[in-house]
Amino acid sequence: MASNALHPQSQSRQRIKFDEHLPVDHRLNTVYRIGAGLMGLFLLAFGVLGLTDNIGFFDTGGNTAVGLNTNGTLSVLSVCVGVLLFVGMVVGGNFASTLNMVLGVLFILNGFLFLGLLDTPQNFLAFRIQNVLFSFVVGLLLMVFGMYGRVSSSLPHDNPYWRARHPDAEAPDEERARPDQVR
Questions:
Q1: Interatomic CA distance for residues 152 and 54, integer angstroms
Q2: Average pLDDT in the chain
Q3: Residue 171 lies in a domain
C-alpha cells in the first residue's frame, strides 16, 4: 500500500486535456504531420499500384507492387489507411500524434498476426515475409512519429505535454527563458 501513501485518496486526479495545452503552431505538430504524410503517401502509392494490376480481390498468387506481395483487398485497405493518414496530416496536432501511435500499434499487431498466418489458407491478404517486415517497420516508424516529444522520462519543461502533466509546477530557474533570449 505504499502507492496510497504517495497518492492519498483525498487528492483528486486531474484529467489531462492536451488540446488546451498544445498550440496549433507548436513545433511538435510538424513532426506528427510529416510522419503521417510520408507513411500515408507510401501506403496510398502501394494501394493504387496494386489496384491497377486488376488482380483478384482475395487472390493469394504472387502479384507484387513495389516489391511487396498484394491482392485487391490489401490494396484497398492500403488506400484507406493512406487516406486516413493524409487526413491526420491535414488535421495535425494531437489527432495526428494519436493516429500515428494507434496505427503504429495496429501495424505491429498485424505483422505478428500475418507472421503466424504465412503459408496457411487463412492468409487472405496474401502476405509474405517481406510484407510482415514492412508492417513491423511502418508500425515502428508511425509509433516513433506519434510519440516524438510526447512520451519520455525527461521531457523539457516547456513541452506542452510536460506542462499538462504538471499544471501546478513551474519550470526550474535555469530552464525559464528570459524575454530577451531566443531559443
A1: 46
A2: 77
A3: no
Who has greater pLDDT, 49 or 80?
80
* Torsion angles phi and psi, residue 113, rounded to 5: -60, -50
Owning domain of residue 43: 26-149
Q: Is residue 17 part of a domain?
A: no
Query: Quick check: pTM over 0.90?
Result: no
Whole-number Å distance between alpha carbons of 86 and 37: 6
What integer is the mean pLDDT of 137-156?
Answer: 81
Phi and psi (nearest 5°) for 64? -125, 155
pLDDT score recorded for residue 153? 65
Alpha helices, H only, 118-177: 129-147, 160-165
Amino acid at 48: V
Domain count, the chain: 1
* Cβ neighbours of residue 57 closer than 8 Å, sequence gap 6 or more: 71, 72, 73
Is 73 a member of any domain?
Answer: yes
Q: Is residue 11 part of a domain?
A: no
Distances (CA, A) of 165 to 155, 168, 174, 183: 11, 9, 20, 23
Contact 107, 138 (CB under 8 A): yes
**What is the per-residue pLDDT for 10?**
46
